[in-house]
Write a structure and sequence with these properties.
This protein is α+β, with helices and mostly antiparallel strands and 166 residues long. It is built from five helices and seven strands. It has helices spanning 13-28, 34-38, 42-53, 103-117, 132-140, and strands at 4-7, 58-65, 68-76, 88-94, 122-127, 144-148, 160-165. A seven-stranded mixed β-sheet has the order 1-2-3-4-5-7-6. Strand 2 and strand 3 form a beta hairpin. Helix 1 packs across helix 3.
Length: 166
């Protein structure tokens, strides 16, 4: 399999929005409400990706396979602050057919290198506690569960926080 990992550009935003909906449908159907997935707002999400791309404190990478976007990952300053951590991997998603091929690990390593290059030696990742595959992945990458939020009834809000030392 040949694929390319590169920094996202503004021209990727619409494709990223469509990819996000596809990933949500594959990963979160049965966790998120059908209404949330079926009424996905492509324009709003395209704008969110544009804001990430234009944020100088975050780097957004995409994974391309024959010009088709199949995954993405961002790292940098946290969206939602967590304790005293100054860096996070905020997004890391791959289409199911591209999982378990080493691409996620490669993206994770890119983020770790970037965070270290930025002068930090720790970061965090949040994920959905109902996404067992993601939790297993983050544990394999060396993450330690720091917190599990069992209080929030909104299943679309991340509930498990992993911390990393590098």
């Amino acid at each position: 399999m040949s694929y390319l990992i590169r920094l996202a550009t503004e021209q990727d935003c619409d494709k990223l929005s469509k990819l996000k909906q596809q990933v949500w449908s594959e990963t979160y159907r049965g966790i998120y409400s059908d209404e949330k997935i079926d009424n996905f707002d492509y324009q709003k999400n395209s704008e969110k990706f544009l804001n990430i791309i234009n944020n100088p404190n975050i780097e957004l990478y995409v994974v391309e396979d024959n010009s088709r976007l199949v995954g993405y990952m961002d790292c940098g300053v946290p969206y939602r602050p967590y304790k005293n951590y100054k860096q996070e991997i905020g997004l890391l998603y791959l289409l199911k057919e591209y999982q378990r091929k080493g691409i996620g690990k490669e993206l994770f390593n890119i983020a770790t290198s970037k965070i270290k290059e930025n002068g930090y030696n720790e970061f965090f990742v949040c994920c959905n506690k109902y996404n067992i595959n993601a939790q297993e992945f983050y544990k394999r990458m060396g993450g330690l569960v720091d917190e599990i939020d069992n209080e929030n009834t909104d299943k679309s809000i991340p509930q498990v926080t992993f911390i990393y030392k590098i």
